Amino acid sequence: MNLDNRSRWLALYVLCLGDIMIVLDGTIVNVALPSIRADLGFSQASLAWVVNAYLLTFGGFLLLGGRLGDLFGHRRLFLIGISVFTAASLACGLATSQTFLIAARAVQGFGGAIVSVVVLSLIMIMFTEPAERAKAMGVVGFVLSGGGTAGVLLGGILTDLLSWHWIFLVNIPVGVTVFVLSVYLCPTVQAPSQERRLDFGGAITVTASLMLAVYAIVKGNEVGWTSAQTLGILGAALALLLVFLAIEARHPAPLMPLGLFRHRNLSVANVVGILMAAAMFAMFFFSALYLQLVLDYSPLEVGLAFLPSTLVWGASSLFLSDRLVMRFGIKPPLVGGLAFFIGGLLLFARAPVDGSFTMDVLVPMLLFGLGGGITFNPLLLAAMGDVEPSEAGLASGIVNTAFMMGGALGLAVLAAIGTSRTDSLLASGVTEAEALTSGYHASFIVGALFAAVAAALAAALLRPVEAPAHGMPEPDASSA
């Protein structure tokens, strides 16, 4: 039977509830890192692996997770991903040793990769009418973007009032609820059995390439960007990527059909997404450091400082973005939203050492919240709006990989720029607060340049998205 309208929207909310766990996990851990370090005895270098272990498996399995959903059923993969992520969250929450926590975080990343790519695929299949799809993508845009700021707030609250264990344990009731509701609400869409051929060579090479690239990026600042280790690992990642492309060009059922990149909007949207993710990471990461290390905010105060931005982000995602897309198409809202990004970053680039919350933090955060709420919807529609239903999972995997790699590489570059500026000023005798602030200013300015290039590319190269001449087939929900 076909899903009725009420069931589709209920299914959307359940999918977003599952996805928001994944998004929250990307930022909720950051605020708790000092507490985790003190409790489990991490060194400063080893503490980074609480984050890096998650990033490695998350980034490495995005493309494979999307393709598996296309081949073996999106709902089935979603249930598997939620189960893995929830079980790994329980393990993280109960961890009493460094090794156990890092291993559980790696498993969390694997489950998170599957969930994040399958959610977008299911939504593109369930919502075929342009207005409804724009509204549904507005909800998803709120989850993907506003969830990051909500993670900072929730991480500060849980760490201050309970303990760091609860930033993971809070996922358990949510994961169980999502699993049960998904069994009854999510549609089942499967490829015919004769099409279920997995390109194992492509899967192994692209997953290994992505994992090596992420590893090189997250270790680059520690061991040096021009060190033999960094250049060697990046070279190996590039070699595996070339092998992957060669396999895809010859395989009868490739993991990633290269013809997919003939879709101009998909290609442009991914480049824009890489640059936008780099700008977003500049905002999240360096504004939190400015609040904690320069203005001396506590973890809870940092979380509360992000609350206005989160509220504006959510409101503009849910009530404004879809209306702008339906009235103006995808290009004007995307370019306009990126302009708000630029404004917020440039305002942070002038925040002084003795800055006040109202003048130097609140205004740029509100601009960033407005820009984030507007941009994600048109960007996702541009990336996935012109691919076939059978390729929705793969397109979603490509989009998520672009965001992931753009954020990781962008943060590494911005951190290197900011650290270089700070170290130079410290060596010349400037106070630590002034040196840190100046370093953050440099990072904010480069982040604004990333957003400006993204806006220029979107304005020049994106094509308008027309209403589809034929909708995607209604999903089969017979198992519900």
Beta strand %: under 5%
Based on secondary structure, the structural category is mainly alpha
H/E order of the elements? HHHHHHHHHHHHHHHHHHH
Number of discrete domains: 2
| Shape category | globular
Range of helix content: over 70%
What attributes does this structure have?
single chain; 480 residues; mainly alpha; Growth Hormone, Chain: A; 2 domains; 19 helices; 0% strand; globular; disordered C terminus
Task: Characterise the protein shown here.
Helices cover 80% and strands 0% of the residues. The chain has 480 residues and is mostly helical. It has two domains: 401 residues, MFS general substrate transporter like domains (Growth Hormone, Chain: A); 56 residues. It is globular. The C terminus is likely disordered.
Structure at a glance:
With 480 residues, the protein is mostly helical. The protein has 19 helices and no strands.
Chart the SSEs and their pairings.
Elements: H1 5-40, H2 44-47, H3 49-60, H4 62-72, H5 74-94, H6 98-126, H7 130-161, H8 166-169, H9 171-185, H10 200-223, H11 228-250, H12 264-294, H13 299-305, H14 307-319, H15 321-328, H16 331-348, H17 357-384, H18 392-427, H19 432-461
